[in-house]
Specification:
Layout lengths: L6 H45 L3 E5 L5 E4 L3 H4 L10 H6 L9 H8 L3 E9 L2 E13 L5 E10 L1 H58 L1
Antiparallel strand pairs: 1-2, 1-5, 3-4, 4-5
C-alpha cells in the first residue's frame, strides 16, 4: 500500500507549480516587450522611408510589390500597390521589361542603376533608378529595394543650360566671323570710295584727250 503524501510533499509540489507559472508569465512579458520593440522599430523604419522624397519600394523576385513609401502616392494614383506586379504599376506593361534593373540586381547580387523615361499619366518623367538586393544571413538576395528619383526638372534645367551654352557659342562664333569678314570689306569699301572720287578726274582726262 502506497504511503499518503506528506504535507511537505504537497507544499513542494505547489511551489513547483507556482514557480512554473511565474516563469511562464515572465517569458510572456518578455515576448510582449520584444513584440512592442519590434513594432516600434517597424514604425521607425516606415517613418524614415516616408520621410524620403524619392519613391522607395521593396519588390520580391517574382516582381510583386511588397511595400512602398509615402512618396509613391504623390506620383502614382494606385491606392494599394502591394501584391501587384511592378512592371504593371510602374510601366503599365503586361510582362517584365527587357532592360530590368531589378532583375540585374537580383542576378548579379549587387547595386545596379538605370536612367529611364517613364510615362506617368499623360506626361513623361525622367527617373534615376537604383536597385539594391536585400540579402539573407547567407548573403543571398531575397527581395530588391528599388529607389526611384524623379529628375525631370534637373534634366529640363540641364537641357536649357546646354541650349543657352550653345547659343552663346554660336553668338561668339558669329561675332568672330563677322569681324574677320568686316576687315576685308572695310578695305574694299575704302578702295571703292577712292576710285569713285577719281572717276570725275579720269572722265575729264578722257574727254580732253578726245
Amino acid at each position: 500500500m502506497s504511503e499518503k503524501p506528506k504535507i511537505e510533499d504537497l507544499i513542494g509540489l505547489g511551489h513547483s507549480k507556482l514557480g512554473f507559472y511565474k516563469e511562464v508569465q515572465k517569458k510572456i512579458g518578455e515576448l510582449r516587450k520584444s513584440n512592442r520593440a519590434l513594432e516600434q522599430q517597424g514604425r521607425n523604419v516606415q517613418a524614415i522611408l516616408d520621410g524620403i522624397t524619392d519613391i522607395v519600394a521593396v519588390i520580391s523576385p517574382d516582381h510583386r510589390i511588397v511595400s512602398v513609401n509615402h512618396s509613391f502616392f504623390e506620383i502614382y494614383s494606385q491606392d494599394s500597390p502591394e501584391g501587384e506586379r511592378c512592371y504593371d504599376i510602374f510601366r503599365g506593361r503586361s510582362k517584365p521589361c527587357q532592360a530590368c534593373v531589378m532583375r540585374d540586381a537580383l542576378e548579379r547580387n549587387c547595386v545596379c542603376r538605370q536612367d529611364a523615361m517613364i510615362a506617368v499619366g499623360d506626361h513623361y518623367r525622367h527617373f534615376s533608378i537604383t536597385a539594391a538586393p536585400l540579402r539573407d544571413s547567407q548573403g543571398l538576395p531575397t527581395d530588391i529595394l528599388v529607389v526611384k528619383r524623379d529628375v525631370t526638372l534637373e534634366k529640363e534645367f540641364q537641357a536649357k543650360y546646354y541650349h543657352a551654352e550653345k547659343m552663346a557659342t554660336i553668338g561668339l562664333l558669329a561675332a568672330g566671323v563677322a569681324h574677320e569678314i568686316n576687315n576685308p570689306l572695310t578695305s574694299i569699301r575704302g578702295f571703292a570710295e577712292g576710285l569713285q572720287r577719281r572717276m570725275a578726274t579720269l572722265a575729264d582726262a578722257v574727254s580732253d584727250d578726245a
